[in-house]
Amino acid sequence: MDINNTKSRLMLVTLLITAFALTATAQSTIARVGGTVLDPAGFSLAGAQVEFDYSSGARLSTTTGSDGEFARSLPAWGAYTVHVEATGFATTTQQLDLSASTGNLTLRLERVASPSQDVIVSTDVGQISLDSPDPSQKVMVREELLDANPGRPGAPISIPGMPIETAAGGIKAPQYFVPGVAGDHGEPIAQYVAVGNYLASNNLSANAHGNGYADPNIYVSAVLGSVGTDGGAFNVLEGNHSLNLAAIYSPRPQVRRFITLTGDYRDIDLSAGLSPVDPAKKAWIAIEANYGNGLMRTLEHRQQYKWNAMRVFDPGNHEIALLSIGYYGHSHEGNLVPIGYGVQVNDTIDPRQQDQTHTGILAANDIWKIGARDELSSSGFFRTYNLTLFSNFGEGLIRQSEFRTVEGAEVRESHKFTSWLEVLSGLDYNEDDIRRDNLDHYLSADPHVLGPFLKVLANDITIREVAPFVAVRGDLGPHVQFYAGLRHEQIEMNNTDMIKPSQSYDAWRRFENPKATVAWTPGTGPAHWLPSASFSIGQAFFTQDPRISAAEGSTPEADVLASPFERSHSEQLVLEKEVGRTDVRVTFGRTTTTATLAKIDPDNGLAEDEGPGTLKYLTASVRHQFNFGMIQTIFSKADARDDDTGLPTLEAPRTIFDALTTLDKLPFGLHGRAEYEYVGHKLLDVGNPDHPEQYEAIPVGETRIALVRPFMDGRLQLGVNGMIARGYTGQTTETFAPGWKIGDSPPACAAGVDGIANNFNCGTVERAVGIRMVSWVGGSISWRFGNGN
């Protein structure tokens, strides 16, 4: 036996026990308060923000768990002003004298927020939880009259600092983007539908049009309770695609009965919601029908139909949430046109372009409160999805189409050892079964007929993800919290190539994604003037499109499988300081990514090579709340580069600025909201021997305005909304067929121009292209049955 080693181990154990005892002693001397937050119907409310304002000026906050309970350490017993906020509810403020004999508090929110309110809740940098460990997390609510695109397709909510763009009009799904991340590619940004505490993925891996696309058109915007965003790489509950951003849409557990008509001279939208008269019953169904011709010169002849429905049961110690979504959409559409020539070509280079999509989602979540310390969640979802998209990117009309089913399931258990130590463990499973993932190229340039077509790609694909995960969260004294987690990814890619069977393969890949966060708050002592701070690190991944070709003369499986997995390593520092009712937050971030093959080129079916890259960014936000509203500004600066060449990442924005204000006490009883969004320069193409010219995107600015006037205690609401915009969104570059000029028939290429039978890559004239932006104004009228609030 090694005596020295034995002594060292005994000494280490003694030190750990001593540290544990000291920490426990320190905890016992701190005043702690706990309790429950209830909604107006008396049900426990998860995710409510509870803030304790002390007479010294200190502000201490916490968030209720899934059972509506909260606990918080206080600097001392005494008089506090307690604020309770929750998305969709009016803020409640109480003056309380707290002492050791106070016992558990019961805080009730008395009324639902008025339809004009915007609620922004940012996670306290010094407060992290097992479900929300990312201190940069932000949750925002928009009511139906203040949507980003009222009465039109697109993202239902405009998230400040996260612009939206698309490469087409009509119903084509737009994508959020962030500084340094290309917007229309979709891959490194995750989207989820929250059902209870379950995150059902809305990303479509290996999508026929663009890998990882997510379609926000599926929501009836009136039933959305909130949308949350975080850094993506720092939470074990978030998996594929969550490299740079995760956006989480959360439906409301309760919806008042309503009917809303929205429109302008070219579009009309009707939505309605039904719910039980008894407000204690958490059930609703909402439907929406939309018809219109859009804002561009080419008429869309758009039709959209959707339903969203939810039911929440509370049998005993269980809370069971069921969600159903259905969507069908069809439209003709403009597409990318040479910048500056949108009017001349009627906003399309090919009038045959159109899009058809339908999808259905069923999801369930069961939260079982086993006891005071244990909670077990069981969840699952099933989805079908179909896409048929006709586009022309300068080298001929193509059709991208697919049908898929998606299944997912998750089981997770959390255990609270003490008020300052808790753990989470579980297993997540997701499977995409994509059939007829096809790319077809049409051979006719006649704008009135489709003509014969040639198949470029035809694949059946299965992507499976099996991910056990574990996380722990704890307090290290009154000022420091920590979170550490590990997600063990096991990914299967099964690619059956119908055209080139030799390129088919089936293989698994395994890798670890660790995550960690440490957060510090200064408290009320001598360091109270310092900002709260947190530092996070995390690894993440996404699966690129497996429909790629192996290098000549190499083993197909080895080369193919070396590329479609992209790994990332992220680091994030967040600083936050509250001064009065003003919150200042600064986030520094750095993400490195591995080399990979990226999205499929729509004209030749080949994957684009992306080398290893580094993204550095800084985001600063200032938010000030006053008695009748708030104002918030966000400024982001980023530098994204290819590590091999040192050149900037193409199409990645370098500067984003956003200013948002909400005013609830305007003259004549009006409630207002205005937002200005600016996306600065970004490099589109650095040039090459064939096209030496460098292209840079023209900056884009948008101003959104919304006004609403409630009548009859809020039952009747009249609204006006609009947008002032110039320029082109979705800017990129495309190469056009030889000899094509503005005003000609649709460009087209013959097959095999470079000796490859089904390659249509004939473009010789490169152009900067985009979608022409149009200013608009519209109106809405809404009736809420029963109590308008």
SSE inventory with pairings:
Layout (H helix, E strand, L loop, with lengths): L2 H26 L2 E8 L10 E6 L4 E5 L5 E6 L3 E9 L2 E10 L6 E4 L10 E4 L15 E4 L22 E2 L9 E2 L12 E7 L2 E4 L1 E2 L8 E2 L9 E7 L14 E7 L6 E6 L3 E8 L7 E11 L9 E12 L4 E15 L4 E2 L15 E16 L4 E19 L4 E22 L2 E22 L10 E23 L4 E18 L7 E16 L11 E12 L12 H6 L3 E15 L2 E12 L2 E5 L6 E4 L2 E14 L2 E14 L12 E9 L7 E9 L3 E3 L9 E2 L3 E12 L4 E11 L1 E9 L28 E8 L3 E9 L5
Parallel strand pairs: 1-7, 12-17
Antiparallel strand pairs: 1-4, 2-3, 2-5, 5-6, 8-9, 9-16, 10-11, 12-13, 14-15, 16-17, 18-19, 18-46, 19-20, 20-21, 21-22, 22-24, 23-45, 24-25, 25-26, 26-27, 27-28, 28-29, 29-30, 30-31, 31-32, 32-33, 33-36, 34-35, 36-37, 37-38, 38-39, 39-42, 40-41, 42-43, 43-46, 44-45
Describe this structure in words.
One of its GO terms (cellular component) is cell outer membrane. It comes from Edaphobacter modestus. Residues 1-26 form the signal peptide. InterPro entries: Beta-barrel_TonB_sf (IPR036942), CarboxyPept-like_regulatory (IPR008969). One of its GO terms (molecular function) is carboxypeptidase activity. This protein is mainly β and 789 residues long. It has two domains: 3-111, Immunoglobulin-like, CATH 2.60.40.1120; 138-784, Maltoporin, Chain A (Beta Barrel). The chain is 4% helix and 54% strand. It contains two helices and 46 strands. The strands form nine sheets. The protein has a 22-stranded antiparallel β-barrel. The longest helix is centred in the first third of the chain and has 26 residues, at 3-28. The radius of gyration is 27 Å and the shape is globular.
